[in-house]
Amino acid sequence: MSRFFFHIITGPHDPTRAALGLLVARTALEAGHDVDLFFAGDGVANLRAATLDAAVGIGTGSMREHVTALAAGGARFYASGQSSKAREVTGAGLEGVSIAFSPPGVVVELALAADRVLTY
Fold it and tell me: Are the C-beta atoms of residues 39 and 45 closer than 8 Å to each other?
């Protein structure tokens, strides 16, 4: 199977696009692929519990349901430490989701290790 890297940069202002990235990541995971997700820029705001609970994309589903399924399936979550700090995102309220707050070099490492890279 392949390793997929999803770079989520779309924030809550476009829940359809952000949820689409999570839906495709979930689909890859359910097909047996390894999945890494890195949230950066406005995308880190999707990692607020209230945002996940409220955000539903048009035809792309519930962000909370996708994140829960991804975490339960073993997907690895990373978030930009700088973007998270600037937006006061701590990962609080995301039981079962382990987020590694990381520097930009991790994006490079994940992209190099992946067979496929997708950005949403």
Answer: no
